[in-house]
Amino acid sequence: MLEQKGDLTSFRPDIKVVDCTLRDGGLVNNFEFSDDFVRDLYKANVAAGIDYMEFGYKASKEVFDPKDFGKWKFCNEEDIRAVVGENNTDLKIAVMADVGRTDLNDIPPKSESVVDLIRVATYIYQIPAAIEMIEDFAKKGYEVTVNIMAISTASETELDLALELLGKSSANVIYLVDSYGSLFPEQMCRLAEKYLAVGEKYNKAIGIHAHNNQQLAFANTIQTASIGISYLDATVNGMGRGAGNCCTELLLGFLRNPKYKIANIFKFIEKHMVPLKKSGVTWGSDIQYIITGQANQHPRAAIAFTAEKRTDYSKFYTEVTAYE
Amino acid sequence: MLEQKGDLTSFRPDIKVVDCTLRDGGLVNNFEFSDDFVRDLYKANVAAGIDYMEFGYKASKEVFDPKDFGKWKFCNEEDIRAVVGENNTDLKIAVMADVGRTDLNDIPPKSESVVDLIRVATYIYQIPAAIEMIEDFAKKGYEVTVNIMAISTASETELDLALELLGKSSANVIYLVDSYGSLFPEQMCRLAEKYLAVGEKYNKAIGIHAHNNQQLAFANTIQTASIGISYLDATVNGMGRGAGNCCTELLLGFLRNPKYKIANIFKFIEKHMVPLKKSGVTWGSDIQYIITGQANQHPRAAIAFTAEKRTDYSKFYTEVTAYE
């Protein structure tokens, strides 16, 4: 086990908090956030000292029809600028680019964009395609991070090979991702040691993106942070696909860096998250997500169960764990 | 840091799961459970392989008027027997006895009772009174455990002294309790090491009772279990005071002992917890409990905030963290 880095009465300046509310939360409401919501979230993040704010996906309009989604599925440059102007703040702007669902021609040189960071999301079998994207974005002048998704169902040998390839790439940060919310802290810490060793070898930071199926998103985030992971993804109120994510308001309560000002997040929750939830937008830990998390499965069955307002948990448990 | 004990593909036979749904959950609904609820919970616990089921408090009728509470505040022998008969099962029956709120004359010799375990709950300043109770119950033939409450606001020196006294007592198990849900896993593990050292010295098991203010009840339970804590408190659906407890359905998904059968818990949730929540009984992680947890305070202000259906979190944050 790696030594603990830092302690509860000081802080590590290498730690960065990455707000993913619009991007992961957009998976819940089809990216249909009001302009007010987005503008106030930006202001709250700036005031709270958040390091990065992810506005959404940079999705290909060849693959997805803009008529079917809110604008943050595509993150047009002018839409981001309508919120942030020239972004003369300490908050950096991020967007996510999925392998196979992004048009590289949509990404201008950094000199023409207010975006600072592009986050590449890849499955393990797409690593060569991910590396093409990473190199393109890095050459254009962006910071680049890479999320390897669904590692809880990948072979450890393949994961080791993927990490070596990404270590040699131009990515600045490699993310440990618990896509299904299936991993316990002892497993996350073992994986974190693997990622941190590659980070050490190739001089890269390591990030974490956790899901809350087993009410472990916050715990997994702070436990892996305590052994050296430094890019910490969070969303306000934990808003995100299915069981959601690590809550920003929990994470800021743990971090001791005085630049983080949690009260701004509470204000935002009160003004925007309470009415959003009242309007019927639903996410967060619940029995159906526990069941898919324990079964190490994508939560799509649980999301459908939620949408149908089912509560027959024992039938769902039998369905999800069926062997045939 | 202590070595990990056990691993994720085997199991430790010393681990016991203690269901506290009626006792800690009773703090939410004034112990007014239907007879059906209690009978089905007993059956579900037996079928699920749970080791102990806590029925409620053994509260003094001098201190509390039975007219003001459901019957599980008092746990009369005949009320327990109406549910369990002679309890010819592997499930053991527990009740809680608060220092200063229990009449020792209400506790018959074990030979006259179907109760197996009495759980003494004490503040650190009440330890001598707690020890009187422990010795009385042990002499009467019961298993005895002791919970030291609110340790996150006690001095570590006093805690060390208290643990030594309890180590020399007849208690079988000493419980590490995070009353305010304020402790992070690294703090809980540091405390667990302290308790485990006393347990080692005096040949006692150590238990954990966690609260979910910061969504850490499950994480704190399994992290401290992984270094040797063996009595694990949980409640179905996490039902309990304020933010609630470690969920039985999460804990059984972590433990690998084949005697635990999680499907029975899902069935119980479907039949009883869904309607209970619909009827307006409220518990579980929410912003107000995060705020009192972060502030290391009793959740009573957050419970009142919840009862008043307030959502002005930033005002509440200012109230709770006021210096004057």
From TrEMBL, chains A, B:
InterPro entries assigned to the protein according to its UniProt record, in alphabetical order: 2-IPM_HCS-like (IPR050073), Aldolase_TIM (IPR013785), PYR_CT (IPR000891)
Where in this chain does the record put each Pyruvate carboxyltransferase domain?
A: 15-270
List the molecular function annotations (GO) for this entry.
2-isopropylmalate synthase activity
The record's listing under CDD domains reads: DRE_TIM_HOA_like
Q: What's the protein called, per UniProt?
A: 4-hydroxy 2-oxovalerate aldolase
Biological process, per Gene Ontology: L-leucine biosynthetic process
Keywords on record: Manganese
Q: Which domain of life does the protein's organism represent?
A: Bacteria
